[in-house]
């Protein structure tokens, strides 16, 4: 029984191959590395029916993940998040078949747990004892907590404006937490200098090749949850874009191994950004292959405040290949959509997830999403991590008071 | 195909039977009502293997739940939360086989989602259009959000000291939210007066019979996750005690239908309370059948600040029947245990869950938990809902600064 069909790493830019049994970071050419599997052998030896009876977490797909030995798996039960029909909200925006993949129902309350589970497990397997990383909050929280479970030391650098609760998660895990009076790009530079100076493993987004493998399980789960079929459109809030790259990679791997038809039309992937930070949208509109640094970025959807993503070219490639698109949403629109989603469906989504619902509404109104299409919205985190997005002015009674109507 | 084997309701005190097809609240004798099923027919017609391939949520046990028609199910994907081995923490307290059932990985971030999903679904099925309920925060948040999805109006009354984030959840759902400068018992009195005056459905804990059916799925899941076996001990943070009553009910039902052996020794159930609010512990120590109002109750584990539970006699019965016990933990102990759990296992548990880990440590030290026993701790919610239980003093750098070692 082969636990993982991992074969090697490769550079999507200069096509150099790398040994996956060694710790690797970026390609010498500066590009992120991607993980390859022996998909031919996997297709012969593993059937999609084999996973049906496994535990409902992302490790049910372990053959398509990089961890070689189950003993190295660091898991808190992440994955197989619900895919929920949201028909009332769908009717409200004219999308009959609207679904929410709810990534708030996961350890640490955000989809970052997927990348952390697989990234930390693989780091442990390769002997990493300490890492540093910049974060907009949720990724750092997830990596800090999974690192604690793995017995790995971590240094997390996040902007002072990152969601407060993610500080607590890092602090309670015992991580070395540092704030920076700036953006995630500033945190990244501080981490880069520390990595250089102290010889640490660099856990930055896409500077290690394995978190993308965790994120890709969102794509595998969507296919399995549709009965090994795919929807027409998947919308994803795009900061670093790892999830979108991962979903695209997953669906192509599933085609290769025949778990979904090799000739099926892949879902059109949509990168949703904020008007206050829309480098991918700008690049897509200009039909470019990569993005430029987005100056003075600012948005309430803090997780997608990423002015320049290292994997921008992979995100754009996924959009072009699937005939998807990129779209920017204002903070006002997303806050309105967050309230609508809660009121109509009882789902308290994060601001990034709300931006994606708003994007679905806009794309349906413009006709880009056609009548009857099956549309999946990724809600990347729990609304409870963002208390400041909701204001509650509430009357206070004394015990002897009565309610009025 | 019978979706639910619901037969009727009965009073556990005076044994009066009630028609389940009508809206029912308390028994005329003042006791909560319990739900009965046609377990004989269920045992003949449904096998435990039948549920294996179903979706990983609590509705996989729909035959043992009260909702008659699948069309009335109001679900956000709740249930089948992970049962996670916590071996490092276990070793630290001398419990070799320690598991955490993590109820933070659920919509609304607390186990209250189970009661809300089943309670609201059944209320919808019975035609309820509006309800009122008192809450210590999490239950109200869950009921408000599920009610929004069901299209039912809700009035939620909670203490001013309840976790702030639960206010936001109620507010964003569109519920009618009111605070009271007092305890949940004061909120309960305000709700009782409003129910009387305006003819509302009373959603108070155990004043409607169905939330307990949602909570009992924790017990069914534990059995299924152990391969239709049971652990030796289950520890549960006890406020209203509905989960403990539900787990006990579930395990007895599973014995009756033969999904676990009819003659197996049921787990010893442990009610964990706070030293600042320990009415069940006091009653148990005095070998009483019910509890007395606990004066001036106060604890940081807000969810278990319930000075007098309506179902106290059912909780105590479950403890006596299973040879379990009741134990109180100080706020200092639980805060220390919360930090230990995060540092050793990467699990950021809620204060109530932390109290239960502390109780396991104490009971192992005293020998009440024996060497080698399989012990399950219920973590009833996500730590991220309680930011004030962790303090993070963090250095702030400027972008040009460097990390030091």
UniProtKB/TrEMBL annotation, chains A, B:
SUPFAM superfamilies: Tryptophan synthase beta subunit-like PLP-dependent enzymes. It comes from the Bacteria. Its cofactor is pyridoxal 5'-phosphate. The lineage of its organism: Bacteria, Bacillati, Bacillota, Bacilli, Bacillales. This is Threonine synthase. The keyword Chloroplast does not apply. Gene3D superfamilies: 3.40.50.1100. InterPro entries: Ser/Thr_Dehydratase, Ser/Thr_deHydtase_PyrdxlP-BS, TrpB-like_PALP, TrpB-like_PALP_sf. Residues 74-381 form the Tryptophan synthase beta chain-like PALP domain. Coiled coil: none annotated.
């Amino acid at each position: 029984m082969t636990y993982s069909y991992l074969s090697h790493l490769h550079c999507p830019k200069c096509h150099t191959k790398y040994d996956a049994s060694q710790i690797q970071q970026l390609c010498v050419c500066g590009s992120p590395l991607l993980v390859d599997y022996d998909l031919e052998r996997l297709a012969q030896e593993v059937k999609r029916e084999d996973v049906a009876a496994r535990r409902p977490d992302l490790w049910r797909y372990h053959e398509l993940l990089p961890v070689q030995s189950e003993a190295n798996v660091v898991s808190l039960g992440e994955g197989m998040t619900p895919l929920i029909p949201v028909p009332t909200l769908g009717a409200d925006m004219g999308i009959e078949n609207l679904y929410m993949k709810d990534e708030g129902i996961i350890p640490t309350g955000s989809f970052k747990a997927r990348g952390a589970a697989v990234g930390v497990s693989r780091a442990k397997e390769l002997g990493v004892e300490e890492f540093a990383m910049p974060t907009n909050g949720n990724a750092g929280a997830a990596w800090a907590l999974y690192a604690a479970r793995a017995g790995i030391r971590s240094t997390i650098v996040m902007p002072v404006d990152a969601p407060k609760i993610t500080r607590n998660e890092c602090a309670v895990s015992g991580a070395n937490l540092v704030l920076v009076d700036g953006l995630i790009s500033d945190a990244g530079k501080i981490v880069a200098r520390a990595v250089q100076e102290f010889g640490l493993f660099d856990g930055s987004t896409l500077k290690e090749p394995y978190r993308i493998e965790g994120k890709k399980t969102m794509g595998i789960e969507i296919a399995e949850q549709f009965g090994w079929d795919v929807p027409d459109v998947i919308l994803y809030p795009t900061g670093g874009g790892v999830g979108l790259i991962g979903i695209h990679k997953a669906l192509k791997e599933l085609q290769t191994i025949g778990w979904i038809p090799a000739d099926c039309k892949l879902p059109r992937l949509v990168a949703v950004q904020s008007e206050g930070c829309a480098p991918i949208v700008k690049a897509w509109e200009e039909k470019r292959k990569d993005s430029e640094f987005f100056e003075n970025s600012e948005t309430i959807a803090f997780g997608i405040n990423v002015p320049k993503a290292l994997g921008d070219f992979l995100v754009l490639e996924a959009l072009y290949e699937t005939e998807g698109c990129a779209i920017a949403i204002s903070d006002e629109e997303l806050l309105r959509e967050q309230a609508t989603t809660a009121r109509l469906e009882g789902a308290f989504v994060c601001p990034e997830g709300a931006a994606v619902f708003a994007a679905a509404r806009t794309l349906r109104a413009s006709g880009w999403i056609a009548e009857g299409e099956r549309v999946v919205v990724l809600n990347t985190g729990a609304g409870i991590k963002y208390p400041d997005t909701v204001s509650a002015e509430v009357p206070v009674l004394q015990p002897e008071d009565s309610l009025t109507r």
